[in-house]
């Protein structure tokens, strides 16, 4: 096995190996800070000697800040996994080594039907690979988006499964710290699995082995997603299990109403609403739903059901959960999944040349991506994390020829360019210059390049409605382009406004 670029690549390689020296927290006598003792642990999910060529790659499930998750079928066994692929150089550059290691180590020790399972890992010179069990049903976020909002029965079912998994997570002494509909994945049968354990924090009496620094590091480190962050975190209080219960309250509210309870145009404004507990319930919420959410969103984290001395009993006994058979959740009939609109509507399936191991990666690695959604992100990604898409898509060496030395991609997405008689699919690429590029992915020709300008006669944006806007520019050939659809474009607009502000 080769390590990439010395230092960090080698360290990552060692830490992904099947034996790792780690520190296990043990309770300190007299209730003082936990004492760390160093131990060697053997991972349950083995590090295999596989290569990516041992797998037939399918559709892209989603894209994270520094990873891409792809459907991967092992050629010899036929077993299917969700392969999380992380670029070593990128992880090192973005200082995310500990995040990746933490997720690997923690997932390895968890065992609950409501938590995504890590099956094995492997690596090559360029990438780390985590084979996860597949959640073919996508994110809960997408179900909420597709259905508009969920019925109370559907929300009750999902909330109960999250409560069940959270009870386990908190029981082993972990705080997830990023509970939100995007991190609640659904199996093909429609059952919840909690994902994304890169932000977890062990509690003092945690049974879980973590990274050397995780327990010592200040528990009030700011992590999570703005709309789901509890007020005490904004006030720099240490993390507690109550943080996840607040996020559960926000998630339940979102399931029932279609949007999160604390919404606003910027993170700062969202935080103001959270601190002021500016919470309004839609009139059609039942008293039971309203009461549970109200209690979960208590500003005192110790009063939230699930965080009180009686543990999860009061939460599970809440009238909202009437009728839930807590011992038989996984056998209960799950809500019907709303399916994705035909993906081919958005993309015409030409992109079969995505090279997951970057330029210079493993020879002969040309994964087959039959549904043509390579490089695309799920709707939630598009909606919630402006800077995330590009990081992973910038791995794709295809775009390098359009960039100047040192220039990197901030964002990338497919769009329809509407012309008089036809419409065409192109890639819109925003770089950090800032520059906006329009590339025909079929012919790999650049259709336009706009350098940002403060002069409105060079560049101006006209918003028709929330999903349509025009970028009018003299550099953009002789006609104006109407950029059509995807929530993503709203973000481009935001970026435009930010840059021009
Ligand atoms: N086991 C899985 N099965 C199916 N889809 C998955 C699975 N794990 C992740 N995904 C999808 O892939 C997307 C990217 O996941 P990933 O873990 O790389 O990043 P993330 O956790 O969403 O983001 P970040 O790391 O930036 O917090 C997820 O949002 C999800 O939609």
UniProtKB/TrEMBL annotation:
Pfam families: PH_3, Pkinase. Keywords: ATP-binding, Kinase, Membrane, Nucleotide-binding, Serine/threonine-protein kinase, Transferase, Transmembrane, Transmembrane helix. Residues 1-36 are annotated as: Disordered. The chain crosses the membrane at residues 481-499. Coiled coil: none annotated. GO terms for molecular function: ATP binding; protein serine/threonine kinase activity. Residues 55-321 form the Protein kinase domain. GO terms for biological process: intracellular signal transduction. It catalyses: L-threonyl-[protein] + ATP = O-phospho-L-threonyl-[protein] + ADP + H(+); L-seryl-[protein] + ATP = O-phospho-L-seryl-[protein] + ADP + H(+). The keyword DNA repair does not apply. Its EC number is 2.7.11.1. The keyword Nucleotide-binding applies. Belongs to the protein kinase superfamily. AGC Ser/Thr protein kinase family. PDPK1 subfamily. This is non-specific serine/threonine protein kinase. It comes from Canna indica (Indian-shot). The lineage of its organism: Eukaryota, Viridiplantae, Streptophyta, Embryophyta, Tracheophyta.
């Amino acid at each position: 096995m080769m390590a990439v670029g010395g230092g960090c690549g080698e360290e990552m390689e060692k830490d992904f190996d099947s034996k790792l020296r780690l520190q296990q927290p043990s309770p300190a006598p007299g209730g003082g800070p936990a004492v760390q003792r160093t131990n060697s642990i053997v991972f349950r999910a083995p590090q295999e000697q596989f290569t990516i060529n041992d797998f037939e790659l399918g559709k892209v499930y989603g894209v994270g800040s520094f990873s891409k998750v792809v459907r991967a079928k092992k050629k010899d066994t036929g077993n299917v996994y969700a392969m999380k692929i992380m670029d070593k150089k990128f992880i090192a550059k973005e200082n995310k080594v500990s995040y990746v290691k933490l997720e690997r180590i923690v997932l390895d020790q968890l065992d609950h039907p409501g938590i995504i399972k890590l099956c094995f890992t492997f690596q090559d010179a360029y990438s780390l690979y985590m084979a996860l069990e597949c959640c073919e049903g996508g994110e809960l976020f997408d179900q909420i988006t597709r259905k508009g909002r969920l019925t109370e029965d559907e929300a009750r079912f999902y909330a109960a499964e999250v409560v069940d998994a959270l009870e386990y997570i908190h029981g082993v002494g972990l705080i997830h710290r990023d509970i939100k509909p995007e991190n609640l994945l659904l199996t093909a049968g429609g059952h919840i699995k909690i994902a994304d354990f890169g932000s977890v924090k062990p509690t003092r009496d945690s049974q879980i082995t973590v990274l050397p620094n995780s327990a010592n590091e200040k528990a009030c480190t700011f992590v999570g997603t703005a709309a789901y962050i509890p007020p005490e975190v904004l006030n720099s209080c240490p993390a507690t299990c109550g943080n996840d219960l607040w996020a559960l309250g926000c998630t339940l509210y979102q399931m029932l109403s279609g949007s999160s309870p604390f919404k606003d145009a910027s993170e700062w404004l969202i935080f103001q609403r959270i601190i002021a507990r500016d919470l309004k319930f839609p009139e059609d919420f039942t008293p039971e739903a309203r009461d549970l959410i109200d209690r979960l969103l208590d500003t005192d984290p110790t009063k939230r059901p699930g965080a009180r001395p009686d543990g999860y009993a009061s939460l599970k006994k809440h009238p909202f959960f009437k009728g839930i058979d807590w011992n038989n959740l996984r056998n209960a009939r799950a809500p019907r999944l709303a399916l994705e609109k035909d993906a081919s509507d958005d993309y015409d399936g030409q992109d079969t040349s995505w090279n997951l191991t970057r330029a210079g990666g493993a020879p002969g690695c040309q994964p087959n991506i039959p549904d043509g959604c390579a490089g695309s992100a799920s709707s939630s990604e598009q909606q919630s994390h402006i800077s995330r898409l590009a990081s992973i898509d910038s791995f794709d060496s295809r775009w390098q020829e359009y960039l100047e030395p040192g220039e990197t991609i901030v964002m990338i997405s497919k769009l329809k360019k509407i012309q008089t008689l036809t419409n065409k699919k192109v890639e819109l690429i925003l770089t950090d210059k800032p520059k906006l590029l329009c590339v025909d992915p079929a012919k790999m020709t650049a259709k336009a390049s706009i350098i940002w300008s403060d002069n409105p006669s060079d560049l101006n944006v006209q918003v028709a409605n929330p999903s349509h806007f025009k970028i009018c520019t003299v550099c953009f050939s002789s006609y104006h382009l109407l950029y059509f659809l995807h929530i993503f474009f709203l973000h481009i607009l935001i970026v435009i406004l930010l840059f021009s502000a």
